[in-house]
């Protein structure tokens, strides 16, 4: 079997390592940081993510750590009025075969990391920042910042939105700044009034801002994420900000969301970025996955889900291949780019049309959402949440079309 290099040891990189190693290959994960860990706070996992995690053998471990949510709740952030809810129990779970859940990122990462450490076929290396690669007819060489060169039969770039592999493969410059700043805080659940400890993902929408919260850490913590459409022009990653500044950024908050936002402590800010969908993620024996291939805004809650889907499909397509990696990678690219590209664009549109309208546009949005039945809302998300196979050619005639 072949030796396959993976640049990046995040959720996508570890999921891909598991998937590829299960085909009998030797895998070397090259992580730039000094340890294998996952930064960030809460993320949402649709049933499609659990379908993929099950195929990687870690679905049950993630379910045990996750909070299984009862509904997605959309609220008017200025009036505190309920607009619409999508139930996530009963008919939803029966239809899609898995729960909708929220987790701390580490609750997905840790089971993947444990499974990789248990595998004799996976070598996990830290302090290995990949700067470039070169390849010939027989293999790929990863060139590290230390000057070391690591050789393999193929290279998978899972090194995130600022991927060095993508820089060489695509050469499309810096990510696109969305103009939206998100402020995140995680607090102990005991600080939240009991009457507001809803088992929901709740979104409060206001003029050019929205505020999301939900339980994580098996219900021990409360995740707050407030986003402002502020026209930010430069990327910011995890900058500490004062609580008073965050509160000032969200004017016209209704009484309940204001009460919840005031609970936040140790706020950190990120300016959200993504990239345009592209047609080609491959260069001979080199391929991109996850955020390196198709970084997306958070608004469809599918970034991690799509990275895990990528891992499953890529492992299946590589199979026990020893020679024709370029062909297999091109097939992977063709199988995945339509679905992931559609999600990238939908996520952008949700930020513009669904979460941040002002005035009459916001009223029209509320009326539209309030008019949907639960079944109609489930229909709307079926193409995302209902996926059980993640490659275009595996979809049956009954599978939902891309929206």
Strand order of the largest sheet: 6-5-14-15-16-13-18-17
How confident is the prediction overall: mean pLDDT? Answer: 94
- Weakly predicted, low-confidence segments: 396-403
Gross geometry:
globular
CATH first level of the domain at 3-67 and 101-174 and 278-351: Alpha Beta
Write down the oligomeric state.
single chain
CATH homolog superfamily of the domain at 3-67 and 101-174 and 278-351: FAD/NAD(P)-binding domain
Helix percentage range = 25-40%
Radius of gyration: 21 Å
What is the tally of beta strands? 20
The CATH level-2 architecture of the domain at 3-67 and 101-174 and 278-351 is identified as 3-Layer(bba) Sandwich
Number of helices: 12
Distance between the termini: 39 Å
Question: How many strands, what sense, and barrel or not for the largest sheet?
Answer: 8 strands, mixed
What structural category arises from helix and sheet content? alpha+beta
Q: In the CATH scheme, what's the topology name of the domain at 3-67 and 101-174 and 278-351?
A: FAD/NAD(P)-binding domain
Strand content: 25-35%
């Amino acid at each position: 079997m072949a030796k396959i290099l993976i640049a990046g040891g995040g959720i996508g990189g570890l999921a891909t390592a598991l998937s590829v190693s299960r085909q009998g290959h030797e895998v070397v994960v090259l992580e730039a940081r000094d340890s294998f860990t996952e930064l960030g706070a809460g993320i949402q996992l649709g049933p499609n993510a659990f379908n993929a995690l099950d195929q990687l053998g870690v679905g049950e471990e993630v379910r045990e750590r996750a909070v299984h949510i009862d509904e997605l709740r959309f609220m008017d952030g200025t009036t505190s009025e309920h607009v619409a809810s999508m139930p996530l129990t009963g008919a939803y779970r029966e239809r899609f075969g898995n729960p909708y859940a929220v987790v701390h990122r580490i609750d997905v990462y840790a089971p993947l990391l444990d499974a990789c450490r248990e595998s004799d076929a996976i070598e996990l290396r830290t302090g290995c920042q990949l700067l470039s690669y070169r390849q010939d007819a027989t293999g790929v060489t990863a060139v590290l910042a230390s000057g070391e060169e690591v050789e393999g039969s193929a290279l998978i770039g899972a090194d995130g939105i600022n991927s060095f592999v993508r820089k060489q493969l695509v050469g499309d410059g810096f990510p696109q700044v969305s103009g939206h700043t998100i402020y995140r805080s995680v607090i102990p659940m005991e600080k939240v009034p009991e009457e507001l400890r809803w088992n929901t993902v709740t979104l409060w929408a206001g003029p050019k801002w929205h505020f999301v919260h939900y339980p994580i850490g098996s219900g021990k913590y409360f995740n707050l994420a407030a986003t402002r459409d502020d026209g930010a022009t430069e990327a910011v990653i995890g900058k500490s900000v004062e609580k008073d500044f965050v509160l000032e950024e969200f004017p016209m908050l209704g009484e309940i969301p204001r009460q919840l936002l005031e609970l936040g402590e140790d706020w950190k800010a990120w300016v959200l970025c993504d990239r345009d969908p592209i047609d080609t993620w491959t260069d001979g024996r080199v391929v991109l996955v996850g955020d390196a291939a198709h970084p997306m805004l958070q608004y469809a809650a599918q970034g991690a889900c799509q990275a895990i889907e990528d891992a499953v499909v890529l492992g299946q397509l590589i199979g026990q291949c020893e020679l024709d990696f370029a062909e297999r990678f091109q097939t992977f690219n063709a199988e995945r780019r339509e679905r992931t590209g559609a999600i990238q664009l939908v996520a952008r549109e949700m930020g513009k049309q669904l979460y941040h309208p002002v005035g009459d546009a916001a009223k029209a949005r509320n009326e539209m959402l309030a008019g949907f039945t639960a079944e109609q809302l489930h229909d709307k998300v079926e193409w995302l949440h209902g996926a059980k196979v993640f490659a275009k050619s595996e979809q049956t005639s009954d599978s939902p079309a891309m929206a």
